[in-house]
Structures are given as C-alpha cells and as structure tokens.
Amino acid sequence: METTPILNLLGVCKRFPGVVALDNVNLSLGSGEILALIGENGAGKSTLVKILAGVLQPDAGRIVLDGRDLSVRSAADAAALGFGVVHQELNLLDNLDVAGNLFLGREPARFAWAGPLRWIDSAAMVRQSRPHLDRLGLNISPRTPLAQLSLAQQQMVEIAKALSQNARILVLDEPTSSLTRAETYRLLLTLKDLSRQGVSVLFISHRLGEICEIANRVVALRDGKNAGELPHDRIDHANMVRLMIGRDLRSFYVPASSTARRIRLQVRGLRTTAWPDQAVSFDAAGGEILGLAGLVGCGRSELARAIFGVDPMPAGQIALDGRPLRIGSARDAIDAGVYLVPEDRRRTGLIVDMTVRQNISLPALRRFASMLLIRPDRETRHADQQVRMLQIKTPSCETPAMNLSGGNQQKVVLAKWLGMKPKVLIVDEPTRGIDVGAKAEIYRLLRALADQDVAVIVISSDLEEVLGVSDRVAVMREGKIVGILPRSEFSERAVMDLAFGTASATAASGGGDRS
Amino acid sequence: MKKELGIGILLLVLCVAVAILNPQFLSTANLQNTSRLVGMFGIFSIGMGLVIITGGIDLSVGSVFALQGIVLAILLTRAHWPWPAATAAVVVGVVLLGVGHGFLITVVRLQPFIVTLCGLLFYRGLARFISNDETRGFGTSSFGLLRPLAAGKLGPVPMPFVVLLVVAAVMAVVLHRSVYGRYLYAVGRNEEAARFSGINTRLVIGSAYAVSMLLAAISGIQLAFYTNSVSPSGHGLSYELYGIAAAVLGGCSLRGGEGSILGILLGSALLQVLQNLVNLLGIPSSLNLAVMGAVILAGICVDQLLASRAKRTRKPA
Ligand SMILES: Nc1ncnc2c1ncn2[C@@H]1O[C@H](COP(=O)(O)OP(=O)(O)OP(=O)(O)O)[C@@H](O)[C@H]1O
Ligand SMILES: [Mg+2]
User: Do residue B194 and residue A329 have CB atoms under 8 angstroms apart?
Assistant: First the structure.
C-alpha cells in the first residue's frame, strides 16, 4: 500500500537509568496502513507506544502528524489527536463494570447543562457498549463487573475501548497476547475493515503468524535502534526472525525424547467454582507435556488454580504419584512439588515494586535461609543464575521488576518456578509477550523438565504453540474436557472443532478415553 | 536509606537548634525524661510500623493502653496478684486482642481500619466501665521487680529506652533479614501475588497485629508506671496517632510494603524532641498539637519534593 505517511517519528530517543530504550528511531505510518512493529523483548516497542500515547516524553526527536510537529503531553492529548491506544499492560478500573470502563471519561450524560454534576446515563451507556463488544465477539453483559473477567476478556474490553473512540490511528501493543485463535481472528478482521476505511494501525505482536496475515509492512527494532523493514511481499516468518534477532532460528520445538512414562498427577472429578456443574478428570504423566486448549473462558485457568490450591475446590480428588494429595493452599501444593506459573503477571505473578532478585527468590525463600534468616549471598547467587539462564534483560538483579519490559517481566515469573525442581509444573500462558528467540529457549527448558520426569501442563491460547510443544492436547469447552488428542491426531482443525463443539463425536472419541 | 537520612538530618538540626535556644535541653534530667518517652513511644510505634507495612493500620492502641492500665492496677492493688502473674496475664490478654484483630481482618475479611476503630471505642468503654470511670493508681509500692523494670533506670539510662534498643535490634533483624520480614513486605505490596508464591498471607498479616499488640503491651506497662495512675477516659488517648505519625515520618507508606525500623526509630524520636521543644521554648502548651501537625506535614512535603526531584534529575543520567 503506497500512501503518503500521515504520521512520522524522526530521531526519537529515550533513556532510562542504565538503559537506552530508544536510540534515534524513525518510523512512518501511512493512511490506512497496517504497520507491524517487531523486536525482541526490551527492544523498545512499548516505550515508543508510550511516547505516542503521551505517557512518556521523548528525550529528543520529533513527532510529525499531517506535516505538523507536535508534542503529546498527556493521554488526553493523544485522544484529542485521534490516537486510540491499547497498552501492553491493562489500564482498566477494577471497580467499574464493562460499560463504565468502555466509556470512562466520555460517559453519555443526561442534564448535560449541569456540567460536572450531570448524570451518567447508564442505560444509554450499556446500549452503546453492546455493538463494540459484539464486534469482537465478546459475549458478556456490559454490566459485568470488570473484576469477574478473565485476563483475555479484560484485554478484549481494552481493545473494544480503543476501537470505540473512532480513532484515526490505532496503536495496539500486544493486543492478542492472551487471546485464542478465534478471538484473534475477529480482531484481525476488524482491523482490516478499519484500515479499508482509512484508519492507520500500528500493531505489535510476538505472534508472527498474525503479522503475516494482516501487516502491509513490518518495521523491526533491535536494542532501541531501527533494524530494518520488510515490504508486504517479503513478510514471512524467517525474514522477521532474521530482522529481530539478527540470525536464523533453528529447531523451534523440541520433540519428546523418552516414551517411558508413569502417571504422576491424577485428577478425578474436580469441580471449580467457575464451573461447579462440571467434573473434570485427567492424568498427566512424567516425561510428557500435556497441552490444555480451548476458547477464552472455557475454564482452563480455573482448573489450574484449583489444582494449585489458590482457588477453592468444591469437589474432587488429586493424587500425586499414586498417593492422594490434600491441597488447601498454594503452600501445600508447593510443598508437594506442584507449581503454577499464573497467567496474569501484574496481579498474581509478580510483586512489581520488589526487585528482580526478591521476586525470583520469593517462593523458595526458605531454601536460602538458615535459622529463618535469609542468606543474601545464596539468594543473590540463585537470582543471578536464573537471570542468566532465561537471559532476562535487566540492568541488575536489584532493579524493580516494574522497570523491565513486558516480556522480561514474564521471564521473571518463569524464573521463580523453573529453578525449584517441580514434580508437576503447570504453566498458564508461559510465553505471553515473549519474543520468538526466548520462546524457543522456554520450550527447550520445558522439554528438559519433562525429560527429568516432570509432568508439564501447558495452558496456552496460542494454538500453534500448544500443538507445537505438547505430546497430548486436552481440549476444554464450558468447563469440561471434551477430548484428548494424541500427537498423531494433532491439527488446528481438530482442536477448533472440539473447542467450538462442532463436528464433535468422531474427533472426541479419538483420544478422549478419559473425558 | 534515603528517607532515613533525610529524617535523621531533620532530627539532628532540630536537636542542635533547641540546644542552642535553651541549654536546658542537654541537662541530664531533660535527656533522661526525653529518652524515656522516646522509649515508650518507640516500642509501640515499631509495632504500628509492622502493621502499616502489611498495608493495614491499628487504631486501637491508645484504648488498649487504658484498658490494660486499669486491669493491671486492679490485679496488683485490689486482687493482690503477684507481679509476674499480673504482668503475664495482661501481656497475654493484650496479645490475644491482637490475635482477634488479625482473625477479623484476615479470615472474616473486615477492613483493618474498621476493626481497630471498633477496638478503639470498645476497649475505652470497657476500661471506663470496669473502673467505674474512676482513676486507678499504683501507689508507691514497687511490686517486686515490675516497677524497676518498667520505670527504673539501667545506670543513667531509663529502662524504656534500654528496652527500645533491644526491641529495635531484634525487630530490625526480623524485618530486614528474616524470611518472615520479607513476607511482611510482600503481602503489603501485592497480597494476591504473595499468596500465589505460597505465602500464608493470613498468618503473616494476622501475626503482624499480634506482634503490634505485644509491643503495645510492653509500652503500656511502662506508660502505666510512668503516669503511676490510670484515668480510664484520658490515659493513652489518641496515642495510636503518634505511632502512625512516627511510622509515616520514618518512611512507612500507608499503601503498604514500605518502611524500616531505623526510620520508625528516628520518627518517634523526632516527635518527642518536638514535644520537648514546645515545652522548653515556652510555646503555649495549647499549641502543642498544632506544632506537631505542622512539622509532620512539612517533613512529608519536603520528603515528597526531594523524591520527585531525584526522579527528574536522574532521567538524563
Ligand atoms: N520505567 C522504566 N524504567 C527503567 N527502564 C525501563 C522503563 N521502561 C522500560 N525500560 C527499559 O527500556 C527497555 C525497552 O523497554 P520496552 O518496554 O520498550 O521493551 P519492549 O520492546 O516493549 O519489550 P517487550 O517485547 O518485552 O514488551 C527495556 O530494557 C526496559 O528495561
Ligand atoms: Mg512491550
């Protein structure tokens, strides 16, 4: 698509203590163009977004919109200029409902003449929310309190909010990181539609497949610098990887090496508070990676949380290595060797204003203590080791976790648990926001754990990822496991059929002997 | 560390200023009295700091002082219990109150402010009821070792100050070096993430209220023998606010997850030196609270200014 650029960034620089996040970055965005911005974790993508959104001020450089220099001093400025922004981390208010969040700051009002005392017309607000939610296929009432939504649903509310602003320029920072195939597909369709109407889109994602599908052009950042771009006809997986990490990437997924497996985790008749009518039973064996697939809200995370003891478990039995296990709290699960890497890093995965070291050591703190006093040397050595193993990009272990880029924060969450010798490891969206290179490394680590006889359970909304890493995939729909596919029957089609409940019976019987 | 440095300098400047304006400040009697007060206030302020670090607050401390003082006086002078039994009963009772607060806050999930506000009202009322609203005194008896331990001196140093130093040393190790201390900060900053990391958040938070009450019980006994008589309606009135002020001055954030023992120590010392200043400089004592409010506000404003300034100057680094 050859159009004259409407937005130009020229020589943008931004430094943080100890890091140059952006170094002389140039970027142009045409009218109606869908531009994908790619780069490794910590390359500076979100920093660029925050500058466009008025959250951060650049140290140097110009922002030119329609040929005019401008400065974006606040989020309100950005909205007034026609930017609709979805940040990587959610910015929604827990104490409002969905509609209230969608229209925050521009609520439809009655008695508008009363100025600040005008009434919020909540009926109108709810009515006007509906189409925005429908467009993304979000089947929830606009009156649902935000706190009841899953991470993916919240992310969709955030996207709907940006779309509802009728922006000229949409800036989306990893909007799909927790969405499954189905929701992503609808979003991509919507974006294409909008671009045909002349809306420009700046799209960031680590899921390269999506980028191949919609981007007109790809721009890459590496270490805060421009690292080249790809025109439409040269966009493919290999080219993007080469631009991002400067080399080719071989052997993405590692196949299972052993076939000798013994059942380690047995779950029987487990009910969760989210789906109290469904009893779930399955086994996970040491040496295997079991994938859990399904649509947003199908109960995968709830299942994991119940097993880990952080959610109440109304009914069901869990056995580890044949012995029944009573799990009343996360502590019990951890003591038994059952770990969960939770999906929402900001809420449950990290204590963002503690340092990287303190976060990594937290679940295993007692191991670094003698007589209940922490031994700083042991703790620091462990944290350093984990940072090196996962290649976490941080100025030091003493940096607060909130100063890390999104993907590097995610690596810290993984680092907390991977070093602790699990028996059963449940990872919920382990690679949310993680770049391709690091993903490959994480898959290798998960496989290495499985080879040490750990039962690894991977929950992921990225279907390609689930099919790539797993040896078996259990598909969930509306709180129950509707089928378990062995590797020989893997296909996106088969999983989607089960997830949606279409062409069911034949596929479900394939491997679903323990449904 | 920055915060402690700031308030440390403020304390030093204040001491030097008062000493120059009125040399009485450095007299043995004044130093002894001030350090006694620093001791009594510092001990329970440390407990308050612990609770604040978990993101909570304890408003019941002042009323607990009254209830505890009354009960202690009755046990010793009316019931003639031996002093170790009376002391143990009072300390255990007060700690149980803390356990109760912790239970209501962590298991019943009531807000700390509400729970301890009800405590503030309830214990004061109870103290007035069981004493028939009459002041109870301890007379001149020493009750074995109790009076010397609570209100005596070790050499020239008042006992409360000695006890404060011991408590502060122990609590500094607990808070800054122990696993439990790290857990306190963790639950204060993100309780949910702490729970997902396997921390028994209920136990950690609940225990902070119990420890707070244990330290309050120690302060309370010292206070009772310092005043030597306990008026149920006025004893310890609004002392919880001194504890909160000391903790906040010393760098604890009411949002939780921040603060240090050294800071709380400096904060409580600063408050007492301020009181002293009002007395020594002949400022009308009716202005006492106003001076204190103004200085605390100024201190926190300066701190905020320095913090945001540090942020700005660090950027182009
Ligand atoms: N507030 C901050 N303070 C200090 N350093 C920061 C801050 N925000 C970002 N950084 C640093 O700037 C660099 C770029 O971060 P940015 O968030 O832009 O990366 P990103 O490309 O979005 O990565 P990801 O793919 O992981 O989201 C990182 O090294 C990060 O540590
Ligand atoms: Mg980012």
Answer: no
Q: What residue type is B206 in one-letter code?
A: G
Q: Which residues in B lie closer than 8 A to residue A374 (C-beta atoms)?
A: 177-179, 182
- Round to whole Å and give the CA distance between A102 and A142: 9
Give the Cα separation of A415 and A389 in Å (integer): 9
Domains of chain B: 2-7+33-307 (1.10.3470)
Which pair of structure tokens corresponds to residue A513?
């002997």
Structure tokens at B149: 């331990």
String of DSSP letters for A327-381 = -SSHHHHHHHTEEEE-S-IIIII--TTSBHHHHHHGGGGGGGEETTEE-HHHHHH
Give the pLDDT confidence of B211-238 residue by residue, as tens digits: 999 999 999 999 999 999 999 999 999 9
Paired tokens of B92? 């255990």
- What does the pLDDT average to over A177-190? 88
Q: Cβ–Cβ of A372/B180 closer than 8 Å?
A: yes
Give the mean pLDDT of chain B.
Answer: 92
Find, among A351, A369, A343, the residue nearest to B197 by Cα: A351
Measured distance between the N- and C-terminal CA atoms of chain A, rounded to whole angstroms: 49
B chain contacts of residue A147, beta-carbon cutoff 8 Å:
none
- Rounded to the nearest angstrom, the minimum Cα separation between B294 and chain A is 31
State the Cα–Cα distance between residues A88 and A205, nearest whole angstrom.
10
Predicted TM-score (pTM) of the model is: 0.89
* ipTM higher than threshold 0.95: no
> Within 13 Å of residue A227, how many CA atoms lie on the same side as its CB?
23
Q: What is the pLDDT of residue A173?
A: 95
Q: What is the helix (H) or strand (E) element at residue A446, kind and residue range?
A: helix A436-451
Would the pLDDT of B25 be above 50?
Answer: yes
Considering every ligand atom shown, identify the ligand nearest to the alpha carbon of residue A48 and give its number.
1
| Residue corresponding to tokens 């709180």 | A479
Tell me the per-residue pLDDT of B271-290, one tens digit each, with 9 for 90 and over. 999 888 888 888 888 888 88
